[in-house]
Amino acid sequence: xxxxxxxxxxxxxxxxxxxxxxxxxxxxxxxxxxxxxxxxxxxxxxxxxxxxxxxxxxxxxxxxxxxxxxxxxxxxxxxxxxxxxxxxxxxxxxxxxxxxxxxxxxxxxxxxxxxxxxxxxxxxxxxxxxxxxxxxxxxxxxxxxxxxxxxxxxxxxxxxxxxxxxxxxxxxxxxxxxxxxxxxxxxxxxxxxxxxxxxxxxxxxxxxxxxxxxxxxxxxxxxxxxxxxxxxxxxxxxxxxxxxxxxxxxxxxxxxxxxxxxxxxxxxxxxxxxxxxxxxxxxxxxxxxxxxxxx
Length: 295
Known about the structure:
Mean pLDDT: 89
Structural class: mainly alpha
Number of helices: 13
Low-confidence stretches: none
CATH class: Mainly Alpha
């Protein structure tokens, strides 16, 4: 009875949040999965059970294959660029430069902006026009004599998604920098001093002392950036609208559900997005729990 008194107040305090989580997260996930097993194709509910037919049809859907390719291109460019740029900025700020607080704020500021606002601004910056209507970054390239770099950005065949990833990198690189900088600053200064006494250069200190200890930070950044990239929607819509060449599963889901009223197929696409995010997050959760047990 004494043990029940210990945990009962905590349970009562967290009960509203647990109930809301059960209903509005896991309950809706279950409802979405139920709809994905039906043939609902109109505004009026139709729960005609078709089993896994929607999932099988999705596997041979040519548009879905394009979505997977675009999503992979966006994810790879976005994650690699954010990690490298964020690490570089963190190392530069770690040099105890003047006005470090100002630079840190400037780098973090884009993260406070929504993807919609970012997309509207970068839609002008990445104006694909190369003739008399040239503007944005292309105009800057021509002014400084870098004409070979002028391109059509997100309209470039096959690699347009790489151009779409650039605004996302601009927005999230500062956040990645903050993660890496916090990890670097958490390493005791005594370890660096010991390495310097042994004759190690600053490069070797970062290479062999600091970077190996940033692996948990890098893993966290990969998980955060990965789940953002897999469900990207508003950034693409703001920059390019609904184009098949720049299509991703989230846009396909939106059009299928709310333009074509095919809610069964739309729920199937939503389940795919949830599953792809779970592939990234669940291994990280198990890794984190295992590390906590070890410590």
